Amino acid sequence: MVGAHLGSIELCRLLAEGEVQQKMTVLVFNEHAANFNNTLKKINPAFEQNILHVDQLGPQTAILLKEKIDAGELIIILGDRTAVNSDKRISYVRFLGELAPFPQGPFILASLLSCPVYLMLCLAEPSGYKVYFEKFSDALTFNRKQRERELTEVIQRYAERLEYYCLQQPLQWFNFFDFWQQEKIEAPSKIG
Fold first, then answer.
1. Band (43; pLDDT cuts 50, 70, 90)
2. CB of 31 within 8 A of CB of 83?
3. What distance in Å separates the CA atoms of residue 25 and residue 148, rounded to the nearest whole number?
4. pTM of the prediction?
5. What's the rounded Cα separation, in Å, for the pair 189 and 106?
6. Where does 28-146 have alpha helices with state H?
7. What whole-number distance in Å separates Cα of residue 151 and Cα of residue 90?
8. Among 28, 108, 162, 192, which one is most buried in terms of CB atoms within 10 A?
């Protein structure tokens, strides 16, 4: 499942674990949110129970995740934030009227794991929280010769779905940095 910094991914996780009792692992790149994660751990020590901290996604991580998927577990990764100080493995796609960098990693990982991809968000609404869960794609496959273009097209579709929900609840998108990074706009992988 690919989520975003829109609404509450933590609440999604709690609802899934409590309501449907679905075992899941949340991939967290701690370099972005070490203080936030430490605060959540202090509030609730069980917070870290199903979190896998990763700095990079290598073969060992992919093997571990494939074992979890084969055992029926869900994997959750956020698809709207690039690695700190890294221009590698990103695609610039249209988002809220401008080109913005999105990570390729979640979609490369999904193709390596040969699993379907779902979009999941949890937004606060006047009547309470609502979980949005939609099928994004069957197993992703990329043609070797056109991989970069096809990958960027998939990321553009993700950005369009995220944009749709951001426009529904703009005050719930929690990206507190220069998301569009206009100074880096000359990246090779972009859809404009």
1. low
2. yes
3. 28
4. 0.81
5. 16
6. 30-43, 59-70, 105-113
7. 10
8. 162
